[in-house]
Amino acid sequence: LATSSHNDDPERACRPFDITRDGLVLGEGSAVLVLEELEQARRRGAHIYAEIAGFAARCNAYHMTALTPDGRELSQAIDAALDEARIGPTTIDYINAHGSGTQMNDRHETNAFKRSLSAEAYRISISSIKSVIGHSLGAIGSLEIVACALAMEHGVLPPTANLRQPDPELDLDYIPLNAREQRTDAVLSVG
């Protein structure tokens, strides 16, 4: 199922990582980012919200709309992004998950975190802003970067709204219902 059967209750329709999740909810919105070299921003005295230290993307031909359940492709992207950033799993404080609220994706993503981050995956706080704003497709990456930068700036991690009955198969530290105060220096966003 792609879209949630709970769309008649929009405030609670998107339920990433919840046992009752059954699809995504489309959202609208966008964000604009000003990117520049760190030293240039410092020279001009700019307010620096965050530094993008690494990036990676992967695609596969496994299925037109499905992902492999073991999380292999996402894990490869995570590994490549961490390598480019020259950091390891112990450095990450927060994961902004894709968290679309589909059975398949949430399982794939949990497995990818475990593959790439090993035991550290259980320590790291994780949430999905899609539970609050929906999935805006092409614009979601920029919205999630902004959410991560603000989490770092304010020391508050966004919750996964509607995470009332955590799926026991998804056994990581998914932040339920309420924001969590936590200093955050390094974020992994898999939007």
Structure description:
It is a single chain. This protein has helices spanning 38-43, 72-85, 103-117, 130-133, 140-154, and strands at residues 94-96, 125-127, 156-157, 173-174, 180-181, 187-189. With 191 residues, it is α/β, with parallel strands linked by helices. β1, α3 and β2 (125-127) form a beta-alpha-beta unit. α2 (72-85) packs across α3. The longest helix is centred in the middle third of the chain and has 15 residues, at 103-117. The protein is globular, with a radius of gyration of 16 Å. The model has no long low-confidence stretch (mean pLDDT 91).
What is the topology?
Layout: H1 38-43, H2 72-85, E1 94-96, H3 103-117, E2 125-127, H4 130-133, H5 140-154, E3 156-157, E4 173-174, E5 180-181, E6 187-189
Parallel strand pairs: 1-2, 1-6, 2-4
Antiparallel strand pairs: 3-5
Helix pairs in contact: 2-3
